[in-house]
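Hey everyone, long-time lurker, first post.

I ran two proteins through the pipeline my lab uses and got sequence/structure pairs for each. Pasting them in order. The first:
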Amino acid sequence: MTDKNELAQIGVVGLAVMGSNLARNFARNGNTVAVYNRSPEKTHALIEAHGEEGNFVPSETIEDFVASLERPRKAIIMVKAGKATDAVIDQLAEAMDDGDIIIDGGNALFTDTIRREKDVAARGKHFVGAGISGGEEGALNGPAIMPGGPKESWETLGPILESIAANVDGTPCVTHIGPDGAGHFVKMVHNGIEYADMQVIGEAYQLLRYGAGMEPAEIAEVFREWNSGDLDSYLIEITAEVLAQKDPETGAPLVDIIVDAAGQKGTGRWTAINGLELGVPITGIAESVFARALSSSTAQRRAAQEGQLPAGTIKALDVDKAEFIEDVRRALYAAKLIAYSQGFDEIKAGSEEFGWDVDPRDLATIWRGGCIIRAKFLDRIRAAYDNNADLPALILDPYFKSELEDLIDPWRRVVVAATQLGLPAPVFASSLSYYDSLRAERLPAALIQGQRDFFGAHTFKRTDKPGTFHIEWSGDRSLTQTD
């Protein structure tokens, strides 16, 4: 139902699928919701189709929309990222009063959120960048929400966001992440982990399909079984559904009909770029971004196939099928742990760089429900940071270190098998290299420093005494201490 005379507790601007579902979620949970869309037809369609789900207050102008909100006004923007978001923020800030709150619920680049928060604060209003995960279903039935912005805004927004968030063991999957861009930064890294998780699941499928010769329906059953153990997660669950699906037109496995070129909207790429900027080796995440880019390089791939690039010697799988499936399961678990560990490393580095004081325990808690990367082992991740909030790396927690003792040999066997089969496994392989780099006593970086000193006099440090040194490479090869 609708009531133009009743003031709304929250407003939603932008009524495409995500915005409409979010508005419906608010209404279903007892909130009166103001709704506005630049095209009034979408507002009318929402009210006509779902007006009986709760109390909606529709408006056809920004001014009417703002007037329909109780104070302090709270309006969440669900429009396309970029200039469209800036335009709506400007309209709302112009129409609102001091102390009102503008929330951006889209996938904004966190540096844009930092800029917007400063601009809106200068105009006397609050701005909150809130990461919302769970897709269309989550928006309607309970997402994980990652709001940043001023702490005062959270005190006002907290109860209403808790009313619509997913809930696990009585705990709402939402909390205040930190100031200005912290919420959107954490959501960005969440999506980066998601990229790596999806890619390594794809690699596991590829190995079972073309290494073990299994059909999609059979692999679907394997994933269903995996979802009952350590790999229990939303992405494993939906993978089984996708692999079991037949194409409605041809009856063939749907996965064989879908073009093998993966799309992306930017958050994974932003995560990889920011990892480079912070100097954090998020190798599995970066490889997953590159894998999507390579999959979409269709002309180049076609040329390589037509040109018959040499494959070398391809060996058929010569191990027991059941043993191979179990090896792939364990390797998948190991690579997923690396993705989460690297993601938490980036969040820690970003928090330190921007002074956000993000608590990793909060993330492990709210990511347990609603979001795309929700997984059983997030409880273990939370316990790891409860035991030691200053873990140098997640995989150094005693529990995960013990797990990796059982996973490392199958992981190595799978990477070797992929190489011998000629099947690409970039995240399996790069994650293993990252793991081995962490545990290596010496890395070839010593040689790289020697090379840098040779061609650019970049200097080096020694293992046997303090200071910075340079070799007179073009002269008598003597050693000079530079500090």
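...and the second, right after it:
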Amino acid sequence: MRLKYTKDVAVSLAIFYLKVIGFWFAFNRVEECIRSFMMIYTILMVLFCLWIQMRGLYFCWGDFTICTYIGCNSLGLAINMVKFGLLFVQKEKFFQLIELMQKNFWHSNYDPQEKQIFDSAKRTCIYFVCVFSFFSQFTLFCYTIRPAVVNIGRNASDRVLIFQMWLDLPLSTTPYFEITYLLQALSLYQSDVAYLCFDNIFCIMCLHAAGQFRVLQYKMTNIHIVRNNNQNNFSKDVSYFSDECFIAFRNCIRQHQALIEFCALLEEVFSVIVLGQVIMFSMLVCLVGYQIFLVDLNPSMRVTLTSFLSANMCQLWMFTYSCDTMTRESLNVAVAVYGAPWTHLPTDKYGKMIRKDLQLVIMRSRRGCHMTACRFFPISIETYTSIMSTSMSYFTLLKQRTIDAADT
């Protein structure tokens, strides 16, 4: 049976990018072969792009400006390989997360209020995924089209590529130029897709988990609305009403446990990647900012790097906001369950059981479901400000170095 998923823009776009790099379900031998081919193709393309940067770093060592530009490109490629390798090792758990979302999140068994909460989470996902994908793909477009702009008016022997190759070959002449340009463009596209696809699906998982915590809060707050919505039973048989509330509350507890397990699995799969992201963002924002504000660039390169910086800022905000939202909503479960009308229940057998279970739910909800950087620290909105503060500190040091070098 093929996996079904909700037909919204964010999920469809994220799945498309995952399929491009070969990181999706295979349901027969043909799809398995295609997936393996795309995985191998992605690894080779990213490694080829990374090899170009490392070779450039070797030949330009000593030129601080060029080395920082190569560092911008290399950091993104390096984190690509880290994310791809770690998720390949935990591929089964990653697919299990997708299946859990399909089973527990992407269904139609919502009442109007729950559907509104679910739609709100979908709209937030669409906003983040589309904006980040736009800036990332626009950066790719700028990198690819920049040589065409720069080569206007140049001789055939003086043309430039997307990245300089430093090979003893006539790469500026036909047909070597066209072949090399196409190869670099293909490798850059595959690297860009690998750069954004895992962040997109991670954001969707966190925001949908937060949405499910909000649905759970709604259910617990309105626990007195029993399954059959038969309010006459309360006046006729108080024990029946208490029994129905206990059954509904037990279902809420099971949903809460399932969400906690989902978040724990999400933490297990992505915690090391999150640590790499935090380290990479500080350096990447600093280096790209240095290139934009402190280096004399031509307009096409400035537009390219500005788009790259915008993609990084959007990615960082998406990354920290989604984790923070999931944490806050998991903590709010304690407030919601305490706000349930448990005081109106009789003190019979089921009423007492509900009160005891309610205390346990509150105690468990006090410890939120965090996404951590390999268990060193939780990710929240404060992480965004901390990374930006660190980046500005690095940027100030680079600026002072540039001023000192100009004075000497």
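Reply from user beta_strand_b:
Welcome! Quick read of the second one: The CA atoms of residues 31 and 389 lie 46 Å apart. Confidence is low (pLDDT under 50) at residues 226-236.
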